[in-house]
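pls ignore typos typing on phone
coenzyme A + seq
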Amino acid sequence: MSTTTDDKGIELCPSAISHIKEKAKAKQRRVVLPEGTEPRMIEATAKLLAEKIVAGVTLLGDEQEVGNLLKRYNVSRTGVEIINPAGASDLSSFVEEFMELRKAKGITKPMALEAMQSPLYYGAMMVRRDLADASVAGAISTTGDVLRAAIQTIGLAPGINTVSSSFIMTMPEYRGVRNKVFMFADCAVLPNPTAEQLASIAVSTAWTMATLVGEEPRIAMLSFSTKGSASHADVEKVVAALEILKRTHPALKIDGEFQVDAAIVPEVAKKKAPGSAIAGDANVLIFPDLDAGNIGYKLTQRLANATATGPIIQGLAKPANDLSRGCSVNDIVDVVAIATLLKG
Ligand SMILES: CC(C)(COP(=O)(O)OP(=O)(O)OC[C@H]1O[C@@H](n2cnc3c(N)ncnc32)[C@H](O)[C@@H]1OP(=O)(O)O)[C@@H](O)C(=O)NCCC(=O)NCCS
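k done
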């Protein structure tokens, strides 16, 4: 799938991001930035440390090149570590671990060495080993490359079967509430989720909502049908996902299948889904596929003037987040704050 800047831009509502940055400051975590030779990463490093959003930054790349950039941008070395993966002291143990991880795939030592010498994979291995709390890249790498390195090296969170993405959608005003927040997923990663994957997307998004926004998730599984109003294989997939969730996560506040109006408009909910504790009051919207999710978030952003914060990559055992290649220095700072919090 092709990516565009428009698709990937993190854009943050001032209240949402200041809340997230405050939480990140309290955690004082370490981030690895694999694209250490990119000037925007250098400027972001300066801001992250000056604003005390992280305790330290590891920049990957040639020591001399990164060092020269730090000098050119007048960035203090305090709190900054530079590692060149190709000559790193832990490279051979990273290679061993990666070979073990990928042995079922028939990986050879030269292949593992090549991967671990690449900053995206090296950074992901640092996160895997808790040498960094999160990795953030994508200013000069594609989404696919960032995600593949994270999936293969960090792996999935326990009980989760897919990486996905979510957006925090902040509405200027919704039914009398200013800056009302919804979480939408998946809007950027998985084109055609199965019922099992849809269930995992819901679990990951609930966790992201609770961790980043601090609100209790009330999840609606969306469809073009409400409680059996239509029958189609696509509706059955959503119903099957809901059944999985009710069985595996009985404590989650979740219901469906709902058309989106039944999910978020109490008057419609009363008519279409009477008796549902979620209908009319959902704050997490799980779309049945990527077409719906991507179109849904963009419509909300453009027609309702909502602020879309994301894509937030979720479902990994430890955080690694993607950036838009058109990202600004402030975008990088914001995504780092988000990613460090996703460690939980
Ligand atoms: C995730 C992504 C990188 C995988 O791409 P890919 O390499 O073509 O996928 P493949 O089917 O070849 O799978 C490669 C590996 O990743 C795994 N994988 C693929 N998608 C996955 C997902 N969503 N979650 C977990 N694992 C996934 C596969 O199981 C496979 O694992 P293996 O190597 O251990 O067998 C791809 O779905 C992608 O690029 N998504 C981003 C979409 C995008 O561009 N969105 C718009 C921008 S917001």
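The chain has 14 helices and eleven strands. Residues 1, 3, 7-8, 105, 143-144, 147-148, 151-152, 162-163, 188-190, 311 surround coenzyme A (CB under 6 Å). more later
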